[in-house]
Amino acid sequence: xxxxxxxxxxxxxxxxxxxxxxxxxxxxxxxxxxxxxxxxxxxxxxxxxxxxxxxxxxxxxxxxxxxxxxxxxxxxxxxxxxxxxxxxxxxxxxxxxxxxxxxxxxxxxxxxxxxxxxxxxxxxxxxxxxxxxxxxxxxxxxxxxxxxxxxxxxxxxxxxxxxxxxxxxxxxxxxxxxxxxxxxxxxxxxxxxxxxxxxxxxxxxxxxxxxxxxxxxxxxxxxxxxxxxxxxxxxxxxxxxxxxxxxxxxxxxxxxxxxxxxxxxxxxxxxxxxxxxxxxxxxxxxxxxxxxxxxxxxxxxxx
Length: 303
Prior knowledge:
It is a multi-pass membrane protein. The protein folds into 2 domains: about 15-215, Alpha-lytic protease prodomain-like (Up-down Bundle), CATH 1.20.1510.10; about 225-290, Cation efflux protein, cytoplasmic domain (Alpha-Beta Plaits, 2-Layer Sandwich). It has helices spanning about 20-45, 45-70, 90-115, 125-150, 150-180, 185-215, 225-230, 265-280, and strands spanning about 235-250, 250-260, 285-290. It has 8 helices and 3 strands. Strands 1-2-3 form a 3-stranded mixed β-sheet, covered by helices on one side.
């Protein structure tokens, strides 16, 4: 099989089936971002401005997720991307993480800068915008919830929206507290809480992104148990050079060398190994090398 053939692109990804939900969420959030930013500046609310900043991150994250789902299924015409462009979705998730952390840092720094200041905040616009924003976020959460369980790309966008929903709740709470107490510093306190909440969510997603980019074993996959299951196949004497990783959400891959016994049916062993990986570990794409005797040089390779 030549480079660039086979599974080099054009296959639907886990996120591909959720493009409609991403597109609708993107349109709603993009329109509301402009409204919230304008009202935040006019009312002097840091909570609104911080939530608008997070909305801006949502717009970019949702847009990147949409673009990534398109790029991921684009056929490779260069012959160089032998794994296709599926990792584009993971990079989009990484962008979401950076945006969320950037917004969090800005909000926390600005909140600390305002500490001690006598800030006047218009509570009525905060409440109206907070309620509308929460409604938009709830609709977006419903649209993206299913995809978040299947795709890291959609999960990045989903967590952005969830965090922004929390921001909208915070804006409503800040508006009510300012209206009841007449103290504008409640706006700063809530903005700080929003920033910290978003940072925690971003770090959780960031760990998942780094695990994929670092080619860690897929979640829920015990490599030692996998080796034992492959070794238990009749005709297999030893398993070595076993690697398993995630290409993108829903696409786990593996490679292994299977040393056969003298009387083994190599084709039967290969089929049994593929069934084991597919049924037990959700690995549809496995590159397996069967060996009648140890391959020279394998033991010398340290990675």
